[in-house]
Amino acid sequence: MVPTMVLVADDSQDTDRKEALRGLADAVAQRGEAPVVPAFGSGGEVSRAVHGVEGPMVLVPAFVAGGDLASSRVFSGLDLEGRLDACPTAPLGAVPSIVADLAGRLTDSGWVSGDGVVLAADGSTDQEERQVVTDVARMLSRRLGSAVQVGYLNSWAPSVGDAVERLQRNGSDRVAVAAWRLVEGRDYERLHETGAASVTAPLWPSDIVVDSLLAQHRAAKARLAA
């Protein structure tokens, strides 16, 4: 029996996020590898959706590590006690293909060598997620051949705006923001208010995101079968 993929994210406060996440769930389901259940909403709504799934399931975060504070809190708060047939996965992180795609989005947004770069994350209460953001910045820096600063929208310091201003004070006439987030939403729109010359589009839509989520499911499926 193929475990159900349960995609988890908080979309309770934002219509744009809701539409983007539904589109992502539909794209994953269209691959036909596994039944897909979207568990989107507030903590209570997500919990009810998860516990309504019968049989084995793989819980897959529909967000990137450090890229969605609200969803990270919902995911970490799920009570799976007694569900031996449930396997949660880590959120997507420093996946080479995703970082390469992000570098391409920077170029598409107008970044050129010599411009400053800020990797804009959301933040998280999980230190492992913070380390993932650091790893992504390091990988992106190597790929671009340029230093990459990290800024946060909703937790930790420096803020995205502070990181942009610091680079400008240090001589970067143009600063590009690389948005480390999966989907659009109100928080994403705030990135356009930081004084940056350009902001990349969210990582979804992209076949690479769907591929990576399905890879998470396959690995967890193997663990459940062991």
Short description:
By secondary structure, the protein is of the alpha/beta class. 43% of the residues lie in helices and 16% in strands. Helix 4 (96-108) crosses helix 5.
Textual characterization of the structure:
The protein has helices at 15-30, 43-51, 69-76, 96-108, 127-144, 160-169, 186-190, 207-225, and strands at residues 4-9, 36-40, 57-61, 86-88, 116-121, 149-152, 175-179, 198-199. By secondary structure, it is of the alpha/beta class. The mean pLDDT is 94. The protein is built from 8 helices and 8 strands; from the N terminus they run E-H-E-H-E-H-E-H-E-H-E-H-E-H-E-H. The strands form 2 sheets. A 4-stranded parallel sheet has the order 2-1-3-4, sandwiched between helices. A 4-stranded parallel sheet has the order 6-5-7-8, sandwiched between helices.
Number of strands: 8
> Terminal Cα separation, in Å?
14 Å
Biggest sheet architecture: 4 strands, parallel
The proportion of strand residues reads 15-25%
Topology:
Layout: E1 4-9, H1 15-30, E2 36-40, H2 43-51, E3 57-61, H3 69-76, E4 86-88, H4 96-108, E5 116-121, H5 127-144, E6 149-152, H6 160-169, E7 175-179, H7 186-190, E8 198-199, H8 207-225
Parallel strand pairs: 1-2, 1-3, 3-4, 5-6, 5-7, 7-8
